[in-house]
Amino acid sequence: MDIIGIISSLPLFAGLTPRQCANLAAIAVPKIFPRGKMFFSEGDEGISFYVIISGRVKIFKLSPDGKEQILRIMEQTESFGEAAVFAGELYPASAQALVETKVLLFPRPAFVQLVGNNPSLALNMLAFLSRRLRMLAALVENLSLKEVPGRLAAYLLYLSKRNKKAAFLELDISKNQLAGLLGTIPETLSRILKRMSKEKLIKVGARQIQILDQDGIARLADGTKHLT
User: Hey, what domains does the chain have and what are their CATH numbers?
Assistant: First the structure.
């Protein structure tokens, strides 16, 4: 495995020198987590962070009554757990492998020592984490201020943008997981998908959603349009 090459291609470490990437590779531990395996649970000590080489990871929180709220689905090249490691705090959420997932694990003691010797590493990661914070702020806004149709529309726009404004969107998570990500239940999600299909905003397949009306989806996401 070309760990140095993988590290140099990661958004988290963008702009680092070859020597810095080599130093990170020296402390990275390749690991494979089978489907369903927990990386950590909310409240655990932040002893390491992870970068995904392949697979998918669910970041979620559980309410006191056991209701799951999915915060994000992480995919290849994305990192998680770094904020807790950086601050020396507990993990604020839980992380679980949705499929067999290969990662690079960075232990906190070795990473903190490395950052101490390379302050520019910390500055680079802080810039990345600030962008992550803005994204999480947008997520909180979506969950607290938008109705479920607006949340779904915003998510479809996110998928489209991620895939270079593609109209055909492959759903790589189940509809139950998508409902959890949007802060709703599967039955409500199914009803909204049917209403959006009826209004010819989208066309729904088994594992695919086609955007038929990009402008209508955008207006639904920003709240200037409502489903009938």
Answer: 3-143 (2.60.120.10), 146-222 (1.10.10.10)
